[in-house]
Specification:
- The protein contains three helices and eleven strands; from the N terminus they run E-H-E-H-E-E-H-E-E-E-E-E-E-E.
- By secondary structure, the protein is α+β, with helices and mostly antiparallel strands.
- The strands form three sheets. The chain has a four-stranded mixed beta sheet with strand order 2-1-3-4, sandwiched between helices. Strands 8-7-10-11 form a four-stranded antiparallel beta sheet, covered by helices on one side. The chain has a three-stranded antiparallel beta sheet with strand order 5-6-9, with no helix packed on it.
- Helices cover about 15% and strands about 40% of the residues.
- The longest helix has 13 residues.
- It is globular, with a radius of gyration of 17 Å.
- It has one domain.
Length: about 210
């Protein structure tokens, strides 16, 4: 299951949530991903991992939920459940609930040099085409923050998303097989997600 944390080096409330995400790294069947937003950069420290693309993704999640408000830290689990990012008990409960669910989608990945082969099948067609998304992330980096709300802190970040791109769409009526470019050593995650963004139906990773 995919756990997305929207965070920022410039947010004083975020380090506890960053620590929670770090604790999820290596947990079986959980893919934790840190998406650094850029809307705190104005207060004196530019997040080197921050991206407008991840701010836009968080805004799209808010819009899909009928809200215009975004904040950090925020966790979104499987594209559905939203929780304040530093509430480990609530997060653990939601992860347990999603872990008990079954999915109609089977997804496998295989690396061939600089390419990743993606194979997926579904027990039934989807009501609308879903997105196949390829994510790359930096496993770990420690940052000494010199200005802003976290000035003077040195924080180790985990699973820092560096790219998030749509590589195809799929109606689920027939199995799909495609190849995507994935150069370099960064781990690869492929996500099958309803548009919106909506529910994440399947995810797989390669290290």
């Amino acid at each position: 299951m995919v756990v997305e944390l929207f965070t920022s080096q410039g947010c004083s409330s975020c380090p506890p949530a960053d620590a929670v995400l770090s604790q999820l790294v290596g947990r079986k069947n959980v893919i934790p991903l840190a998406l650094h937003v850029n809307y705190w950069d104005y207060i004196g420290w530019t997040d080197k991992f921050g991206s407008q693309a991840y701010t836009d993704r968080q805004k799209a999640y808010a819009h899909a939920a009928g809200s215009r408000t975004i904040y950090t830290p925020q966790l979104i689990i499987e594209g559905e459940d939203r929780v304040e990012g530093a509430r480990p008990l609530d997060i653990a409960e939601l992860i347990q609930e999603h872990g008990a669910e079954t999915t109609p989608v089977a997804l496998t990945l295989a690396r061939h040099g600089d390419n990743v082969q993606v194979d997926a099948s579904s027990l039934k067609p989807f009501a609308q085409k879903v997105l196949l998304e390829l994510v790359r992330y930096l496993p770990e980096q420690t940052v000494a923050i010199e200005r802003g709300e976290n000035a003077g802190k040195t924080i180790t970040y985990r699973n820092i998303v560096t790219t998030w791109q749509t590589i195809g769409t799929w109606d689920g009526a027939q199995p799909i097989s495609l190849t995507a470019m994935a150069q370099g050593s960064q781990p690869v995650v492929v996500i099958v997600q309803e548009p919106g963004p909506g529910e994440i139906l399947a995810a797989a990773s390669l290290h």
